[in-house]
């Protein structure tokens, strides 16, 4: 029996057919409706850099409900052929601690990406690149931005190599400063910045 598609009635902000992999839909994250999926992913040890290990489902809902009140940060769930495959966040770099670590330029946009764990059939060669193709199209073309900045954990060599293969150019290694505010706490993190311009991705 074929499983029901995930959130079929939710309107996508971007939809793209990626040759050989299927249709990728990028949906606005619904904190309450998506909590089972998101909590499962951010609770894994591999997602420790997201700083949400140990949070309850209720706390994860609170985090993303707060994010939804901001004009500068947005969360999305990527669905491929009806299955959730990634948590995807965009943010204005000047409204984020990363702005203390590099010179923000007009048209920059920050991206955080957490891919779903491999399914029972194991990893699919080229799958992460296919998803990144959809994400970069949404951000650089759909949102009309000039450059993406990512800040993966400097120890995550697999993620860094994935971005480089996609055309990202490594920037400096930085220390993202601790943030301790009433509504949010983020511990200090060591990250590897990397950048992808629209010209590099699409030649325009």
Describe the oligomeric state of these chains in a short phrase: single chain
Main sheet strand line-up: 1-2-3-4-5-6-10-7
Mean pLDDT: 90
Computed CA radius of gyration, to the nearest angstrom: 16 Å
Blueprint of the fold:
Layout: E1 14-18, E2 22-28, H1 35-42, H2 57-67, E3 73-80, E4 83-91, E5 108-115, H3 127-142, E6 147-150, H4 157-165, E7 169-176, E8 179-180, E9 185-186, E10 189-197, H5 198-202
Parallel strand pairs: 5-6
Antiparallel strand pairs: 1-2, 2-3, 3-4, 4-5, 6-10, 7-10, 8-9
Helix pairs in contact: 1-2
Could you write a compact summary of the structure shown?
With 204 residues, the chain is an alpha+beta fold. It has 5 helices and 10 strands. The mean pLDDT is 90.
Q: What does this molecule look like?
A:
The protein is α+β, with helices and mostly antiparallel strands and 204 residues long. It is 24% helix and 30% strand. The protein has helices spanning 35-42, 57-67, 127-142, 157-165, 198-202; strands at 14-18, 22-28, 73-80, 83-91, 108-115, 147-150, 169-176, 179-180, 185-186, 189-197. Helix 1 crosses helix 2. The chain is globular and about 45 Å long. The N and C termini lie far apart (45 Å). The model has no long low-confidence stretch (mean pLDDT 90).
């Amino acid at each position: 029996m074929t499983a029901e598609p995930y959130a079929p009635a939710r309107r996508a902000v971007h939809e793209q057919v990626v040759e050989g992999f299927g249709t990728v839909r990028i949906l606005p994250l619904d904190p309450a409706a998506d909590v089972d999926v998101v909590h499962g992913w951010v609770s894994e040890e591999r997602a420790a850099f997201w700083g949400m290990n140990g949070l309850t489902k209720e706390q994860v809902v609170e985090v993303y409900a707060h994010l939804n009140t901001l004009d500068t940060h947005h969360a999305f769930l990527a669905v491929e052929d009806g299955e959730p495959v990634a948590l995807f966040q965009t943010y204005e770099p000047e409204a984020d601690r990363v702005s203390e670590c590099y010179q923000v330029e007009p048209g920059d946009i920050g991206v955080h990406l957490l891919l779903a764990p491999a399914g029972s059939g194991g990893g699919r060669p080229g799958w992460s690149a296919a998803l990144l193709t959809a994400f970069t199209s949404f951000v650089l073309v759909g949102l009309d931005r000039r450059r993406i900045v990512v800040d993966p954990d400097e120890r995550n060599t697999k993620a860094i190599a994935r971005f480089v293969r996609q055309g990202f150019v490594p920037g400096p290694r930085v220390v993202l400063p601790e943030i301790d505010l009433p509504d949010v706490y983020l511990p200090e993190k060591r990250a590897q910045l990397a950048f992808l311009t629209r010209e590099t991705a699409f030649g325009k």
